[in-house]
């Protein structure tokens, strides 16, 4: 969209598009979080052992990793709107197709196909958000959307567990499909076309290879994109390892474990809300520099969980809460800076960001797991310190450069 046509004011009408998109995002996320509690009934119905239970999540995430490289360039070629609408239709239909499966192998294949829905969120949907709204408005919208998306990992498992006690397990997929269908109606009604079809965009293997090669050789883009997993990794590792840290190592009950998740997610939500509040008052990027302070303060508290023998869980959870606050203040801005670091079409840029982030998360989870296995809680804390230090070291010059460009628009990369 041309700069003069970008949305700069937020009201109910201008928020309907991102609300519809985040509803689809919510449906895709609970497609994993809500489905897992039903897996014991799935394997029981299909007459297989429980070793198949974790494979459902693996298959879903595999589907999410298979297509981002294609969905972004597809939207550069044919426009954001038809590609995203097609992705929502695909996800809705694949959820309804659960009623057709009769064995575990077809179920797992369907989980891969359902996982394709993940490929359309960042590579197409969020690229359209960045193009539809003026820069600071896009940052505010992205920060607000992140809070809605956070509901999925909190509500999904509980809703899934409750549902399977009241209805057949396939009912969960029916509800997910209904949620996705409502998102489809909203997107069909309110999603603008932010990228006109471009016949000159080639989708041949050679053209895609050249496009991604050029993107990954762009040092500034790679550095900006890597800031995102470096920032988010400690919280991702907390989600993955906190059951072991709090319940097995520190002896907390399952209820206490759940309660200590509340301040962590509250920190992230608070950071997103604060960013939405100050985005139009502060120069874009200042919130990242400010967010580094709670990030570092959280690390100090986390290290307290290693030093002091009593109340270790308090230091650990509150330290993660401060780190989550810093992440909330920074994430949407860093996403914007990475997206505008390259002048290539935003579909391929957002797809490249998605793939770099997924690779970073996969490597980071393994590093945290290895650190915990080798050294326990101290290993977890030291790894968090290393990731935070790497983030600060990499992000500060990137943010200051982006802020300098925005204070002098003539310095901005063409098309940013």
UniProtKB/TrEMBL annotation:
This is MFS transporter. Residues 13-407 form the Major facilitator superfamily (MFS) profile domain. It is found in: Cell membrane. Keywords: Cell membrane, Membrane, Transmembrane, Transmembrane helix, Transport. The chain crosses the membrane at residues 12-31, 51-71, 83-102, 108-129, 141-166, 172-189, 224-246, 258-278, 290-309, 315-335, 347-364, 370-392. It is a multi-pass membrane protein. SUPFAM superfamilies: MFS general substrate transporter. Its main location: membrane. It comes from Vogesella amnigena. InterPro entries: MFS (IPR011701), MFS_dom (IPR020846), MFS_trans_sf (IPR036259), Sugar_transporter_CS (IPR005829).
């Amino acid at each position: 969209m041309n700069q003069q046509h970008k949305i700069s004011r937020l009201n109910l009408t201008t928020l309907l598009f991102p609300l519809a998109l985040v509803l689809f995002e919510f449906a895709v996320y609970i497609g994993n979080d809500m489905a897992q509690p039903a897996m014991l009934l799935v394997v029981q119905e299909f007459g297989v052992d429980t070793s198949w239970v974790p494979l459902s999540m693996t298959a879903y995430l595999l589907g999410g990793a298979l297509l981002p490289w294609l969905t972004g360039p597809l939207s550069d070629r044919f426009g954001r709107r038809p590609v995203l609408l097609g992705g929502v239709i695909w996800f809705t239909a694949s959820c309804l197709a659960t009623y057709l499966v009769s064995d575990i192998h077809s179920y797992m294949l369907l989980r891969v196909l359902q996982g394709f829905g993940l490929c359309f969120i960042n590579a197409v949907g969020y690229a359209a958000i960045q193009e539809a709204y003026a820069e600071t408005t896009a940052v505010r919208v992205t920060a607000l959307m992140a809070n809605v998306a956070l509901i999925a990992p909190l509500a999904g498992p509980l809703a899934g567990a409750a549902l399977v006690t009241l209805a057949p397990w396939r009912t969960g997929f029916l509800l997910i499909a209904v949620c996705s269908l409502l998102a489809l109606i909203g997107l069909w009604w309110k999603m603008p076309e932010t990228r006109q079809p471009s016949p000159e965009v080639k989708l041949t293997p050679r053209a895609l290879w050249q496009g991604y090669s050029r993107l990954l050789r762009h040092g500034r883009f790679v550095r900006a994109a890597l800031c995102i997993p470096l920032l988010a990794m400690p919280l991702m590792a907390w989600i993955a390892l906190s059951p072991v840290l709090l319940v097995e190592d520190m002896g907390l009950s399952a209820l206490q474990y759940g309660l200590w998740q509340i301040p962590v997610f509250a920190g992230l939500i608070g950071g997103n809300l604060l960013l939405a509040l100050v985005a139009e008052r502060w120069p874009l990027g200042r919130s990242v520099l400010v967010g580094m302070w709670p990030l570092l303060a959280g690390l100090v508290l986390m290290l307290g969980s290693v030093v002091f023998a009593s109340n270790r869980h308090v230091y650990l959870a509150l330290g993660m809460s401060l780190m989550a606050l810093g992440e909330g203040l920074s994430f949407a801005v860093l996403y914007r800076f990475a997206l505008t670091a390259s002048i290539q079409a935003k579909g391929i840029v957002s797809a490249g960001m998605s793939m770099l982030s997924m690779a970073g998360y996969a490597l980071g989870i393994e590093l945290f797991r290895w650190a915990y296995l080798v050294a326990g809680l101290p290993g977890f804390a030291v790894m968090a310190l290393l990731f935070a230090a790497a983030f600060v070291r990499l992000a500060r010059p990137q943010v200051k450069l982006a802020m300098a460009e925005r204070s002098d628009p003539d310095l901005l990369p063409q098309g940013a």
